[in-house]
Design brief:
Number of domains: 2
Structural class: alpha/beta
Strand order of the largest sheet: 5-6-7-3-8-9
Oligomer: single chain
CATH topology of the largest domain: Rossmann fold
CATH superfamily of the largest domain: P-loop containing nucleotide triphosphate hydrolases
Largest sheet: 6 strands, mixed
Radius of gyration: 24 Å
Shape: globular
Strand content: 25-35%
CATH architecture of the largest domain: 3-Layer(aba) Sandwich
CATH class of the largest domain: Alpha Beta
Number of helices: 11
Number of strands: 13
Helix content: 25-40%
């Protein structure tokens, strides 16, 4: 682990032991004397490192091991094997110096107290982290401006919408100015406007503070907007770790040509027709044939407009998960 490395994991593994029994009274009685345990591998031999200041997307289907990994990095779970360091600390020791530098934000969990105003929960966090009043006020002012929190601070949490509560949850997690953010589905359930505001805030916080961000999300817009690098995980194993654009280039053998013509024409000889709407036709063509087919379209047909696009990231990632091959 170098001085510039914020997070490192080597051969990280987590195995859960789960009690199982068959249905029925007899099985319940037998279970009192002879319990049947099954081992479930949540994370299997993960090795990666994240440099200080990076924003990295940590992606995978449900049950892939993303949240388990984040909880081990945050010190909430003890690994079954392997080694992990976060800012040089062993997370599961939960040392004060470590806890003051990290934040774990989970979109489906909340830390704000339901029946009191938001500002009172913020004050509680200030006391817990021992933040000096001047530093607290400065950070609160910055967060209030960035997230437009002023109308929300004196409302009880129970009166906030989901999007409003999520903004306040993120602010509460950042009052102590952490240098590592573990964000687990921070935009889940939010409308597109609120998703964009949260993304803009994460980007700005990273720019202002140089914080390192590890982000899980099922919304590819989050990943495209924030992450140059992605780590794909499936069944607890890493399938890909690298640049987002390289992921698309390597695992998508096709491009999409969107063409608009002066009059309708059968475009099937030029490629696979994906859709036709509002006078525009979208064709899927092999990458190796893009230049040739584009030239043919422009030479043969009355083209009004033409553009070449990479496939949606969701399509590329779905293809990788289907293959389940380590890349």
């Amino acid at each position: 682990m170098t001085a510039s490395t914020a997070v490192s994991a080597a051969h990280l593994r987590k195995v859960y032991r789960v009690y199982e029994r068959e249905a029925g009274l007899g099985a319940a009685l037998r279970g009192l004397f002879q319990r049947q345990l099954q081992e479930i591998v949540g994370v299997d031999d993960l090795t990666f490192s994240i440099e200080a200041g990076e924003i990295v997307g940590f992606l995978g289907p449900n049950g892939a091991g993303k949240t388990t990994t984040l909880k081990m990095l945050a010190g909430l779970l003890y690994p079954s094997a392997g080694d992990v360091r976060v800012l040089g600390h062993l997370p599961w020791r939960r040392e004060r110096a470590f806890l003051r530098q990290i934040a774990l934000v989970m979109g489906q969990r909340h830390q704000l107290i339901w029946d009191i105003p938001v500002i009172d929960s913020f004050e509680l966090n200030r006391a817990i982290y021992g933040i000096q009043p001047a530093h607290y006020r400065r950070m609160l002012d910055d967060l209030t401006a960035l997230l437009d929190l002023a109308p929300l601070l004196h409302k009880p949490v129970r009166n906030l919408s989901l999007g409003e509560r999520m903004k306040c949850e993120i602010a509460a997690s950042l009052l102590h100015r952490p240098q590592i953010l573990f964000l687990d589905e921070p935009t889940i359930g939010l409308d597109v406007v609120m998703q964009r505001r949260i993304r803009d805030f994460i980007r700005e916080y990273n720019r202002r503070t140089g914080a390192t961000v590890l982000l899980t999300s099922h919304y590819m817009a989050d990943v495209e907007a924030l992450c140059r690098r992605v780590i794909l995980i499936h069944h607890g194993k890493i399938l890909f770790d690298g640049d987002l654009t390289r992921l698309i280039e390597r695992f998508s053998p096709y491009k999409t040509i969107a063409v608009r013509l002066e009059e309708p024409v059968d475009l099937r000889p030029y490629g696979e027709v994906l859709s036709q709407s509002d006078g525009q036709t979208r064709l899927r063509v092999p990458k190796s044939a893009v230049a040739r087919l584009t030239g043919r379209l422009l030479a043969d047909l009355p083209v009004i407009d033409l553009s070449i696009e990479d496939p949606p990231i969701e399509t590329v990632i779905e293809e990788i998960f289907t293959r389940e091959e380590v890349v």
